[in-house]
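Two proteins, back to back. First:
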Amino acid sequence: MIPGRARSDGSDEFSFQYGRYTEGDRDLSGVDSAYDPIRVDNLLARGRFSLFDRWSLDVEYEQDTWSGATPIATAPLVFGGNRPTSPDGTSGATPIIEGDLFLNSKFQPLELDEHGDPAAANRSLVHTLSYASPETRQQVDATLHYTFDRAELSIGGGGSFESDYDSAWGTLGGAMEFDEGMLRLEGSLSYTHNETRAELSHDAVPYIDTSAYRHEVEIFPSTGKRVLSGDSDEVGLRLGLSQILGPNTVVKLGFGYARASGYLENPYKVEEVAFIDPAHQVQAPPGGYYAQVHALLEQRPNSRNEWSADLRLVQYVARVDAALHLSYGFYADDWGIDAHTFEASWGQPLGFGLTLTPRLRFYSQGQADFYQPYLISQQAYRTIVTDPDTGDIISITPFDPSLLPSHFSSDERLSAFGALSGGATLSLRLLPGVLLDGSFEYTVHRGDWRIGGGGEGGYSDFDSYLLSAGLRFDTSALRSIAAAEGVSEGAFHAAHGHSGEAPAGVMLAHMLGDAGDWMFGLRYGYTLQDGNVLRGTRTAGDAEIIAEGCHDIPCSTAPKSMTMQMIMVDVGYAPTSWLNLMLMPSFVAMEMDLDPLEGAVPDEHGHHDHETGGVGDTALYALLRLYAASGHELHAGLGLSAPTGSVTEKDPRSHQQDNGYTHYGMQLGSGTWDFMPSLTYTGAWKRLSFGSQLSGIVRLEDENDSGYALGDVFQATGWAGFALTRWLTATARGLYTWQGSIRHDYDRRHSESGPMDFPSNYGGQYVDLGLGLAATGWGPLSGQRLALEWLQPLRDDVEGYQLERVGGLQIAWSLAF
C-alpha cells in the first residue's frame, strides 16, 4: 500500500485476520520422524482512524505462535543425524550432531555395510531436524499522519517482542502529489534496533561448540542457563513513484536500501564440521579418511547491505469489470544473494457481493557466498596432551579457526532455490462497508527451480499451505449509512447499549437494539501468576511441596510465574429485537517459568521456560431479552463452547516432541463441549450505570480426547459506573469465581515433576476487585467503544498447590452498526 494514498478519500477502516501456515513433512530419506512440521498461527488486526482535521492514525497489532520441528543443520545422509522412530512411536531427545564419519580419497562420505565397515560413497545430504518449543511473537505498530492539500507527513514506530528476540523501530515518511494528483512521489527513512537473548538448549549445549561466541555467551551459575546475547541495528531508505497513466491504469515504481550491522546470526543454527585429525587415522578406510563431526554455531558477516527495486502495474479491465495486478521485484545484497519475484493477480467481481481474486507468485534466489551444507577441515578438533606416567591432562589445544572459512552457515534459507505459489481469495460483501475474506495459498519449494539452475538438492524440498480468514470494516461507510437513516449520534449510541457502561472484563453485558443490527469487537486479556505457591489460602514452603504436592512421588520443580494472553473476536447479529446471535472464537498464548525446589532431587530440567499458543475454544451464544424498560434490561445467555483449542500440546522440558503432554493449565482449550448459561441485568440512572451477572460453565463430557475434563465454573459479578464526561465512564466491580478440580488424568505419557502436573492442584475459590474506564466514540469514532479494566485479586483459596495470582488486564473494543 502506498503510504498516504489510501487516506486521500478520508475513509476509516478496521480489519481482523487469522491465518494458519503449515509446512509439509521434510524428506528424511526413510527416517520416520515423530516431530510435526512447522505450524504458525497468525493474528493481524489493523485500524485506520481519523482523529482531527487532517490528522489520522494507523494502528496494527500482530501475534503469531510457532511450533514444530525445523532444520538445525545439514549433514551427509550416512551420518544419520535424524534418529528413527522407535517401536513405541517416540524418537530421541536430541538430534545427532556429533559423531564419526568416514570419507574416501575424494572426501566423499562413505556408507557402512552390514558389518559396520565403510563401503560405497554416498553424497546424499539431509536436513537434521530439531524440535522447537512453541514460541509467541507480538508486534505493535502505530503511524501518525498529517495531510496537506497535496502532501503528507508521517511519523511512526513499533516493536516486536519474543522470549528470545526483541526489536524496536521508528519511521519518518512523506509524500507529495504533482500534476493534479496524477503523479505521486513518496519516501521514508527507518531505524531498527534488535536484541537477541537466546537461551541455548541445555540438552544440546554439550554437543555444540560455542567458542566463537565466548564473549557473547553468559552462564548463570544459579540456574545453569547459557544465554547468547547480541545486538544489531538497521537503517533503511525507501523511495516510491506512482503514475496514473489513464482512467484505468496505474504504474508504481519503488527502490529500497537497507544496511544492517551487529549480530546477524541465527543462534539456533549450527554448521557440522568433519574434522580430520592427521595424527589419528587408524580407523580410516584404505585410501580414505576418518573424521570426527562436531557442530559449531553458524558465523555470518557482521554487516549486510541490501538493495531492492520493484515495478507494479494495476490495470482495470472495464469490459469484465475486473482488475489485473502485475509486479516484479528484484533484491540483491553483499552476502551474494540475488532474488527475483514475479506476481500476478486478477480481481473479478462475481455478483451477489462476491469477488474472486486468484493469484500466482514465483520466487527465485541464489545462495549466499558463505552458505555450506557442511564443512571438512583437515585438523584435529581438539588435541589433548597427557602425562605418560600419570595419565593426567597436561594441555588441551582447540582447533584453529583460521583453517575454517571466515563465515559459514547451513541455514537452508540462505541456499539457492525457487518457490511457486498459487492461491485465491474470495471476498463477500455482507453489508455496505463490511467484507468477509477467505483465502488459500499453496507453495511448492524446490531447489532445482532456481532461475539459471544451481539450486540446492532435493533434500531441501518441501510444500506448505496458508489458510486465512478475515473481516474488514469501512467505518466511514457505516457512519454514512447511519446518517442517511437519520440516526443521531446520541441515538446511535443508545441503540447499541452504550447508555449503561459495563467493565471491559464483562462479556455479553449488552444486547443490540434493533433487528438487523451488527456488532464486531475484539477483546484482549492478560493474566499474571507470580510469587508464592499457595496451599488453600496460605503460602506453602518447598519442603511441603516436595512431600505433598505430587501425591506419591516427591516434587522436583514448581512454577515460578505464568502468563496467559487471550484475544477473542466478538461477532454479533440481531435477527430480531429480542434475539442476538454471537460467534466468539479465541486465540491464546501462555508462558510458564519453572524453578527447582530447594532440597529436592536435582532435576536437569528444573530451570525451564516454555510456551504454548494458538487457536483456543470457540463460543456460540444466543442472547434473549427478557425485560427492557426505563433504563433497565434483563437478558439471558445460552452458550455452547466448541473444543477447537488443542489439548495435545507437548512438554518441551527435554526438547523432544514425544516427551509427553505438558501441564494441564498450558493446554489451549478444554477439549470438551461446554454449556455456558448466563443471566445479566443492566441499568442506568442519570450519570450512574450498574449491573450484575451470573454465569457458569458446565462440562458436557466426562473426559476429552486426552483423558481428562476441566472442572465446572460458576461466577457472580456486580458493577457500577459513573460518567465522568459525556464520553468517559469510570467503573468498579466485584467478582467471585468458583472452579472445580480437574476430573481424571491424562491417558497418555506426561511429565510429573511439579504440582502443575497433577489434576488435584487445580480449582478453588477466588475474589477480585476490578477498576476500569470505558469510552464511547463520537464524531469520526461514533459507534465505537473502548474499555479497559484491571482485576486485582483479593483472595485466593486454592485446591491443592497452586501459584498465587498477581492480577489481570482486560481491554475491549467494539463497533456497532
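And the second protein:
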Amino acid sequence: MELSKRYDPKDIEPRWYAHWEQAGYFHSVPDEREAYSIVIPPPNVTGVLHMGHMLNNSIQDILARKARLDGKNVCWVPGTDHASIATEAKVVQMLREKGIKKSDLTREQFMDYAWEWREKYGGIILQQLRRLGASCDWERTAFTMDESRSTAVIKVFVDLHRKGKIYRGHRMVNWDPQAKTVLSNEEVIYNDEDTTLHYVRYPVEGGHGHITIATTRPETILGDTAIAVHPDDPRYLALIGKNVIVPVAGRSIPIIADSYVDREFGTGALKITPAHDPNDFEIGQRHGLPVIDVLNADGTMAEIAGHFIGEDRDVARKHMTQKIEELGLLEKTEIYRHAVGRSERTNVIVEPRLSLQWYVDMKSLAKPALDSVLNGEIQFFPEKYQNVYRHWMENIRDWCISRQLWWGQRIPAYYLSEGGDADVFVAETREEALALAQEKTGNSLLIIDELRQDEDVVDTWFSSWLWPIAVFDGFDNNAEFKYYYPTKVLVTGWDIIFLWVARMIMSGYEYIGQRPFDHVYFTGMVRDKQRRKMSKSLGNSPDALKLIDDFGADGVRFGILSSSPAGGDLLFDEKLCEQGRNFCNKIWNALRLVKGWEVTDTTDAKISEANSLACAWFDALLARNLQDVSEKFTQYRLSDALMGLYSFVWNDFCSWFLEMIKPAYGQPLDRKTMDFTLHAFESICIVLHPFMPFITEELWHQLKERKEGEDCMMSKYPPAKHIEQQVLDSMEDLRTLVTGIRELRNEHNIPNSKQITLYASASNPLIERRGSTVLICKLAQLDKIATDSDAPDGSMQILVGQEKYFLDLPIVRNIEEEREKLNKELEYLRGFVSSTEKKLSNERFVSNANPEVVARERKKLEDGISKLASVEGALARLN
C-alpha cells in the first residue's frame, strides 16, 4: 500500500480505535497472567474533557498500554462521579428553564428529572476520552450512584455507625448559601481578597464611653452576644465585666476576658458572634454565651435578626453600615486584604454556620493509612508528597459527610415521626430500621409509615472513597476482586490528596485490611506558559477536542506529556502539540523513504561492511534506549521517557541511521540491511505505542502484511538485551567526527558537492574498524580518508577524544584571525582546567560529593587537558 505524503489522523484514529474496541482488546477477565489494574479518578458527570483530564488520562493510558505490551492482564476501570452539588445545580437550572421550581417537586419527582439529566449528559466525557485513545475496559464502566456502588455506600455507613465511627452532632460548618449545603474543609478554596474593615463603637451601658471593634461583617453584629478583650490588655481592664449596647439591635451584652483575643489586630477588642464564626463559637462555649443565628440557609437575614429581614447578606451589610453611620457609631473604614473562603463548586463566599450534621471519626481510621505510606507499603511518586500527606494525617479532623441535597445516596438514618430526632435508627433498609425501633421502644405495633428517613445525602467523596473496592464489588469478596485488588497505581492530582487519596487508603485498611493501590503518581497542575492555572474565567484553557481535531490525538498526547515533569506543573503551549504532529510526520516520512528503496540479494562488500556496522550500532543504541525507557517507567518519569524516545527516533534513527544505510540514487539496498531496518522500525512502533498509539498502529500494519489479531497494541515489548558499549563508543566518535567536518564545511561555505580529503593516523581505532571509513566518507561527503601521508600545511584539525584528524579545505586562510580565535580558546581552557583542578584538590569536595559527580569532574578535567594540548598544538603549527 502506498503511503500518503502526510499523516492524516482524522482518517486513521477513529478507524483504529473502533478496531481495538471491536476486537475486545480493552476488556479484561481474570486469568493466569499478572493483573495490572487501574481505576480511573471518576470525572464528574457534569464535566467535559479539559486539559487536566487530558494529562491524567494520557498518563493512565500510557501505563496501561505499556503493561499490556509487557504481557500483563490490564484492567483499566472507567466511570463517573455523581457530583452531588454540581449535578443538582445543573438539574435545578434545567428545571428553571422549563419553568419548574425545585420546591414545587417532591423528592421522587426531582430524582426522576435528575436521572433523566444524567442519562442525557452524564456519559459525554467518557465518549470524549475515546477520542484521546483511552483504552479503558468500557464494559466495566461504573457510576458512583449506580445500584452496586450505592449498596456499598449504605453498607459502609451502617457499619461505621455501629462501630461508633459515624456520629451526629452540632458543630460549626462551612455553609454554601447558594447550594444550601455544608461543605468539607477541603471544598473551600481560600484566596486573598480586598474587603472593608469597619470600626464600630459599642456604647458602654450606663453612659460611660464606648469600646470600638473592627469587623469585615457588620451584618452579623445583630447576632453578637459579647465583646471579648485579652485579660492582660491594660486598655480594657476596667471594662471587663461591664455591658455594652449592640448597635442597631439595642441589646445589652457583656465584656468578657479571653486569652484568644489578638491584642494587635484591629482595636484589640473582638465582637463575639457564636453562630457565625468557629473561633467565636469556641469562645462562646467557654463562657456560656447564647447563640443567635441571624442568617437563613440561603444567606438572607433571618427573622431573629430583627432588621433587614429577607435581605441578602451583602445587601444587609450595606444597610447595616448606613444605619451604624446614622447612629454616629461608625468610627472609620479601611481596606483590609485577607484570605476569603469560597465554595469550590459555586464560588460564593462560604458562611460559617452552626449546624447538626453527620461525621466520621477520622482519628480512628488514620493510623494504618498513615503507616502504610511512611513505611513504603504504598509508594508516592514524587516522594515529596509523603510530607504533605503526613502533616494532614497527623492533624486530621473529623469528616462532615452529610449534605443538604437530594441527588446522592440518602443517609440510612430513620426517626420516629412523633419522637423527634432524639432516637435515631441506622440500618441498610427501612424494614431493618423498623425492627430496631420496635426493639428499642418495646412497641411491636410500630409500622413503617411511622418512620421518616433523614433528608440529607452523604458527601460525594463518601461514595468515591470506596472506589477501588466498589468497582470490583469487593464487599462480596468475590474471586474477581481478589484477582484485581489491590490496584497497581493511582494517577491523580496532588490537590485531592486529602479529599480522595487519603480516604481511599483509610477505607482499604478498614474494610479489606490491605492497601487499595501499590503506587500513587501525582500529576502537576496544567498551567499556561505564563504559569497561570488554566480556567474558563481567564480564557486560557484551550478546547481539548479542538486540539485533537487540529493536531491529532497522538500530537496532543505528545504535547501534553512532553511538558509534564513528574509531579511538577505542566506549562502548556499549543506549539508542543504542533511539535507532536511534526514528529508524527517525521516518522511517517521515514517509512515512506524506506518503502521506496529497492532490495537486492547482492551488494558491494565495502557497502555491506558499512551497513553491518550501522546496524550493529543501532541495535546497541536500541538496547540502551529500551533500558532507559524501562527505568523511567519504573520511576514514573514518563515525560523524560517520551523525550528520550523523541530524540532517539528523530535524531538517531531518522537523521543518522537511515542516512548511514541509504543507498546511492538508483541503487538497491541489500536484503539483510532492509530486514534489520524493518525490524528496527517495528521495535520503534512498539516502544512508542504507549505514548502515540494511533500512528504506531498504522505504521505497524504498513510495514508488512499482518494476520488477524497481529496488532501493535497486542504485540510484545522488546526484551532487554546486552548493550554493546564498545560499538556505541566507537560510533559516537564517528558521529562526533562527521559533525565536526560538517561544521567546518558550513563555517567556510563549502558545499557538499565539493569532495575533500580527511587525514588520519593509520593506527586510529575508529579508522581500523571495518566499515567505518565508508560511513565517514558517505556522511561527511569526503573524497577519501588518507592514512598513508601527512596532512598538507594549513589543514584544519578536528579532535575526537585523544585522536587528531586533519581536513584539507580548499580555502584561503586568515592566519591572524585563526590565531586570535585560538588564543581566546586557549585562555578559556586554561581557566577551566585550573578551576577544575582546584575543585578536585579540595579534599572536602572529593570525600563528601557523590562518587558519580567526582568521576564527572575528573572526566571533564581529562577532556579539558586534552583540548588544551590540541589548541596549543594548533597554535604552534600556525606560528
